[in-house]
User: Fold these one by one.
Assistant:
Number 1:
Amino acid sequence: MTKPPVTSEPRAGGTLSRRERVREATLAEIKEIARRHLVEFGVVGVSLRAIAREMGMTAPGLYRYVPGIDALLVSITADMYEELADVVAAADADVPAADTDGRILASLRAFRTWAITHQAEFSVMFGPRTRLDPEADISRALEAGRRFGSTFFTLFDHLVSEERFPVPPDEAVPDALRPELRSFADTVGFTSPDISEGAVMVLTACWVRLYGVVCMEVFQHLSFVVRDMEPFFESELQNMAKDLGVRYAPPGRQ
Amino acid sequence: MTKPPVTSEPRAGGTLSRRERVREATLAEIKEIARRHLVEFGVVGVSLRAIAREMGMTAPGLYRYVPGIDALLVSITADMYEELADVVAAADADVPAADTDGRILASLRAFRTWAITHQAEFSVMFGPRTRLDPEADISRALEAGRRFGSTFFTLFDHLVSEERFPVPPDEAVPDALRPELRSFADTVGFTSPDISEGAVMVLTACWVRLYGVVCMEVFQHLSFVVRDMEPFFESELQNMAKDLGVRYAPPGRQ
DNA sequence: CACTGTTTGCTAACGGTGTTCACTTAAGCG
DNA sequence: CGCTTAAGTGAACACCGTTAGCAAACAGTG
């Protein structure tokens, strides 16, 4: 008995047989309900038994489609990374290609908007790995994460080649940081492979700020003292824009 | 039948009766084991039955000491905030009082060190509230959180009064941000109540950066691409120091 | 058509969880 | 010493993930 993968491969011909189609549909239903339960009850509220109950079947039956609850969570997490990557890429594509500044602001705002409108999803994606076991195969999520980042990396690359901001010389990069920056740039697959370490340092510093402010907002660590976090995000965006030589514009109506 | 509080109050005389002492000891044991299980198995691995088993009693017996698993988690979370506040305050106190720069660096490094050496604790404290129900009484944690912040606020106040860095004029503060900054400063209880909004804006920007970099490290969102996050933290610390007019010094041995 | 092998879903079961209730035991107090 | 009250137990209920064995439906072939 072979363990079923979470996503099944199409057969040789490229077309799916009837059996494969209904199988795919059932799997999609499982993931749809799991996602809904995640949003409604949080990550601890996702259970195979409850999913099966809602589908009108029993929990052991789900094991024909999913190897277990952990793998299911990993799988929908990968879906969510792909969705986020799509949303950010779409926001980027909505702005005229020549308007680098507008594209950067739009992409980052799309990231925040998605985060605060999908708090449960964001928490499992960017929060601590409380339930996703470390041995799980997260390659699909990693790939989508890479795609998510690539939108920003491409835009950042434009800024560097347009010399929008003074790139710190390599001497200004702390020695201990250099190999880490190099490793980061390589793994992440920069558009221009000869990007300087100083530039990558600036990029990560910007990312840390935005990640930090979005995390604070989604995790609600200032919710009892601050009603609306958007001004903080916009302020951070403005700071980042200044450092990067990007023309800041307040969020358009639309 | 009155629900037992998680921490019992000492009686009028100030001394604890024998009964109250053993009660306190049992409660302490419960929390000690819960904490250990949290570290060992993560937040999902904390269970009343397992705690009771280790204590040689049964789960319902614990309900004499704790109203339920949620309240227990909230309670040890408050303990952890108090511990963190102590650690940071101790690091601050270890540096000569006149050396504001050194105290700032020491306090922030103590925060990061505690975070990475207490990842499970940090995750429940600063990560998404996945298991702490929103209706719980978190006043003790909030109070400790306030104390945790006050170390930094006091030091920041020194910087402001010493005019170490150019405080942005009020016109430079986005209108939308002003009431939020005001609310933040009031709730948090600044040492000097007439601190300007521009100064608070700078402070929160710094905090967001450090919070972000520590979260990334603890939540391991770059672990597959970066081995050691310390250089990133130190780099961010250096950036912050520059913006705040603080003399940066690399982490001393000791 | 009948036959065969596979896929699908079920029931039953094991061990784990939080929580409530009724009950017994034991400790402390007057 | 007797009485009050607190501490702890066992049984029960409703959940959870997971495995094993079995029956029915299905797809394809002789």
Number 2:
Amino acid sequence: MSAVRVLLADDEHLIRGALAALLALEDDLEVVAEAATGPEALAMALQHRPDVAVLDLQMPGLDGVAVATSLRTGLPDCKTMIVTSHGLPGHLKRALEAGVRGFVPKTVSAQRLAEIIRTVCAGNRYVDPELAADAIAAGDSPLTAREAEVLELAAHGAPVAEIAERAALSRGTVRNYLSSAASKLGAENRHAAVRLARERGWV
Amino acid sequence: MSAVRVLLADDEHLIRGALAALLALEDDLEVVAEAATGPEALAMALQHRPDVAVLDLQMPGLDGVAVATSLRTGLPDCKTMIVTSHGLPGHLKRALEAGVRGFVPKTVSAQRLAEIIRTVCAGNRYVDPELAADAIAAGDSPLTAREAEVLELAAHGAPVAEIAERAALSRGTVRNYLSSAASKLGAENRHAAVRLARERGWV
DNA sequence: ATCCGCTCATGACATTTGTCATCGGGAGTC
DNA sequence: GACTCCCGATGACAAATGTCATGAGCGGAT
């Protein structure tokens, strides 16, 4: 059986380079392309048609999940996996919805990552147990679409008037949504609500 | 001349391992110790007495700058440098005050990092030009000690009453400080102020 | 000796937010 | 058809916040 062809996308050159070197030590893995941004990752993937795309979650342009979403239709045979520093529950959820087959934190060893790449390439899934537990504990977002949208706008510290304008809603409506969102999250005010929603990955 | 003895501290195993492997390829560099947390980095440094300590900025326990501060007195001959993903101006400032001799983003290549380690070990300093420019552009904090302290407490979304209690101030005073802080930062309200201060590394 | 800035406080006032009740329209379900 | 849920809105009221003037004590600088 020929080597697994891997695409590596991470904006941190230090990590990407080092990782490429380490994965190259594995006989059955071959890094066929590298990218530093989301759009670049997409382009490289379409050009080199790798078996597995290892994507950093946070990249300039498009994030890892967005790239995975595009690849799902653009290159359906390519398995995607996400590597990330910050393991927020919401990210995992978004990733799984995008058809990502592997989700690991950067705290794993290169050895372990290599194993997981093989696992994913074989058609299986792998999710870091700790992140999975967090995600399950966090549960689903109780927020409605509008509540989340308004909360998102409030995250920048904008006053109600500005949120209302941007969302094309009346001020009263905005306040109602913020109020109900905060109450659903058990927060004392909108800002604590933003913080909580962020932690759980709901915004 | 014998090889430069390097301590590597980063909580992300993937990066630390990969980096150690790459630096080992350089004839004149030798990784003598690795650590995944701040306290561990400190202990390993005192035990192995490296020439250069390469510290990740964000680590559990103690962050890179805190470790550098301790090393300055505990192991004065050890040169320290910081490697980071997020290059906030304030971090650089804090680092330089802590006697750090090198400050680089993780977007550099391993090759480049090796060069910088040599530079630092030779007694010179190195600061990433782009981060330096940002830091200069951001300038010094216009906030007084108390303003910064109160803003810090406000960052968690706490209401004035709670901030007042925690800072042992009257509510009115807290509001005055928040108001003046926001006005100095050109922010419309305390939350936008928190955001701005965060971006510039002033809290 | 004087001035200035930081700290901490109070009071008053306008504005913004949070909360609640209530309404109508639409989409989906049983 | 009745029911429920989400969307969007209004009005009213209480509470929190932002703003300003003003004052006192303190310490450093000229």
